[in-house]
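re the bet — no i am not wrong, look at it urself. input seq straight from the record:
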Amino acid sequence: MKSNGENHIDEQRAETVEALRFALGELESGNALSRFIEGHGLQSWHFVFSWSSDWLSIEYRLPYARVLSGEEEMSFDNARIGAAIRMAILLLSSASAGALLHDGEASLSVEAGESGAWYAITDQDGEEIDSADDWQPLISRLENDISSAGESFQIIWP
């Protein structure tokens, strides 16, 4: 049986996943994002998302709606935001199912910014077990874990 604190975190996680799905829907439909946006002016808007728990940390700060940029660059920005949203949904859903970390792992940190994306997995002592300057190894691991559990699930990545 879960404690009230655990139930509260589950509720927060579910609400956050719904908000992320809503934002992804806006992005994919071509509408302006109404959530997770910070900034002002023509070139300073950012998609900003943060999640922190004892075992999962997500930090995103990605450029958004840079009006003075070309269409190709704005499309690239939107694709990166879409990928980041999908990753956050996947991580939060995996955490909810208790399938995020393996034995001996204590926490996972995931970040994305203008300079790229990275992740790190640490043990109880804070020692790094695995990390990369690319999310692809983490995505492969999550796909493998999900398929090993017998789930019918495919990660679609831009």
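see?? The chain has a mean pLDDT of 87. told u. also The longest strand covers residues 56-63. so pay up
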